[in-house]
Design a protein that fits this description.
The chain is α+β, with helices and mostly antiparallel strands. The chain is built from six helices and five strands.
């Protein structure tokens, strides 16, 4: 379970060019594997991470609608790309460009998810950072019950204006 006592700070950790953060979860989002770069950037020990919900690193600056889209996509058997702002155990943050894919057993049954994150382009972080601020404002104004619908509407409007899919938008940044 996420530690809500952690206070976000303005300290940013920047991934190195050749870093890849890798983690695996079960179908419920519980971490079953995290590589050493994940442990380093999250600030949690391997023992703290294993069995914890992946949202242990969720930053409060992330709109809920982004995670709904991600979960809907991967639970539908598709891969998802997303820019994500994560929060470390000490409250610092780090941006990633994530690729999340379902994992399957030999019989073709989904057994979990694999996420590989790399250093995002600074211009992409600026673009999604502004979009996420707008989405969060909409979530706060709408209240908890309507938050996801309100921020999804902002994202949908942007994609319609650009005449692109979410994947096309993310990959174009």
């Amino acid at each position: 379970m996420k530690n809500t006592a952690i206070q976000p700070t303005s300290t940013e950790k920047v991934m190195r060019e050749n870093d890849f953060i890798v983690s695996k979860t079960d179908l419920k989002g519980r971490i079953t594997y995290g590589n050493r770069i994940f442990i380093e950037f999250s600030g949690y020990s391997e023992k703290e991470l294993l069995g914890a919900q992946h949202n242990i690193v969720r930053h409060p600056d992330m709109p809920r609608a982004v995670f709904k889209l991600l979960w809907d996509t991967i639970q539908g058997g598709q891969e998802c790309f997303a820019y994500v702002k994560n929060m470390a155990k000490d409250g610092s943050f780090y941006w990633v460009f994530a690729n999340v894919t379902p994992s399957y057993d030999e019989a073709g049954n989904a057994i979990g998810y694999l996420s590989v994150r790399r250093k995002p382009k600074p211009e992409a972080v600026r673009a999604v950072g502004e979009l996420y601020r707008q989405m969060l404002d909409a979530e706060r104004q709408a209240g908890p019950q309507n938050a996801i619908a309100a921020s999804s509407k902002i994202l949908t409007r942007l994609l319609e204006e650009k005449q692109v899919s979410y994947e096309q938008f993310v990959l174009s940044l």
